[in-house]
Every structure is written in structure tokens, then in C-alpha cells.
């Protein structure tokens, strides 16, 4: 099963939605809190090219934020990425 990583903060509503979607699908994920960790935030920005949270990766593939992941799910493209 692919490794799913979410860079997030505790108060971000889109982070909550991303976690909820993955939990509904039964997908385990690693969550990296960047709210008070400048080093991890810098890693997130370097990996994704984005400054906002959440930033979601499936293995080394950058999915984007919650809206991007939800769109992939709506299009039926998320599940194949999660089961590869």
C-alpha cells in the first residue's frame, strides 16, 4: 500500500476534511504538523512548491491540497492511487 503523508496544522479546516476523507476510505497516513515547526514547513514548501496546508503526498506524488484530493476522488482517480 502506498505511503500517504499530510502536512497540516491543528486548526486548518481543510486539514480536518483531508484526514476525514482518508479515514473514511480506511487509509493510514502520516501527519506532519507544520504549524510550529519551521523546519518541517520548509520541507513541505520545498516538496510541494506551496505555502498552504494541507499538502498531501501519495508516496512521492504530490496530490495537492484537500480540494485537489476531493476532485480526484470525485473523478474516480483517487482510489487507484491509494491501492497501487
What does this structure look like?
The protein has a four-stranded mixed beta sheet with strand order 2-1-3-4, sandwiched between helices. The chain starts with a strand and ends with a helix. With 84 residues, the protein is α+β, with helices and mostly antiparallel strands. The chain is globular and about 35 Å long. It has helices at 13-24, 38-48, 66-74, 78-83; strands at 4-8, 30-33, 55-58, 61-64. Helix 1 runs parallel beside helix 3. The mean pLDDT is 97.
Attribute tags:
alpha+beta, 84 residues, 4 strands, four-stranded mixed β-sheet
Short summary:
With about 80 residues, this protein is an alpha+beta fold.
- Radius of gyration, rounded? 12 Å
User: Roughly how many Å apart are the termini?
Assistant: 6 Å
Overall mean pLDDT score? 97
Give the ordered list of helices and strands.
EHEHEEHH
Structural class: alpha+beta
Task: Compute the number of strand runs.
Answer: 4
Give the strand order of the largest sheet, numbering strands 1, 2, ... along the chain.
2-1-3-4
Largest sheet: 4 strands, mixed
Share of residues in strands: 15-25%
Number of helices: 4
Low-confidence segments, given as residue ranges, are none
